Amino acid sequence: MPTIPYDRAAALAYAKRWAFERNPNFYNFDRLGGDCTNFASQCIYAGAKVMNYTPVFGWFYRTLNERTPSWTGVEYLYNFLTSNEGAGPFAEEVPLNRLEVGDVVQLGRETGDFYHSPVVVGVNGRQIYVAAHTFDAYMRPLSSYTFERARGIHILGVRN
How far apart are CA 43 and CA 49, in angstroms? Predict the structure, then answer.
């Protein structure tokens, strides 16, 4: 399956455009547990331009009722990106110092329960800046969040 580069500039542009608003093409999950992973998926899709329409275990969004768990669920997004061998984006878990614009950070508890998926929109030395929904942010320093664990998801590319 041919791979194409992940368009980090497009993911960044999308994050900047929609960080404080909601794209009407996607349901707003703020009242259904949070919109952070939905927003992260939208940013990734802007950079990947390819969804994976595999039922249940793929990564796609058509409507509120026609989507995969990986589009909106923190753990499901991680599982999809780090194990995807089919169409769409694929990634690996990396230390935070290896993250680039367009990648995702997931914040969690010491127990390993991850609950938030901000998108990387800037890296300056050791400081990582993110955009997120639910608690809307753009260029927010990752260091300003309170969390016990964090994992980096570095997108390696996209398969057609």
Answer: 10
Question: What backbone torsions phi and psi does residue 38 show, to the nearest 5 degrees?
Answer: -60, -45
Residue 95 token pair: 């230390």
Residues 71-97 have pLDDT tens digits of 999 999 999 999 999 999 999 999 999
Are the C-beta atoms of 92 and 83 separated by less than 8 Å? Answer: no
- For 122-147, the pLDDT digits (tens) are 999 899 999 999 999 999 999 999 99
Q: Tell me the two tokens of residue 70.
A: 């990986």
Tokens 């989507």 belong to 67
Domain that holds residue 70: 3-159
Please report, for the domain that includes residue 36, its CATH number. Answer: 3.90.1720
Domain count for the chain: 1
Nearest to 53 by CA among 45, 62, 44: 62
Query: Cα–Cα distance between 70 and 79 in angstroms, integer?
Result: 8
Q: What is the mean pLDDT of the chain?
A: 97
CA end-to-end span of the chain? 7
The residues with which 52 forms a beta bridge, in sequence order, are 59
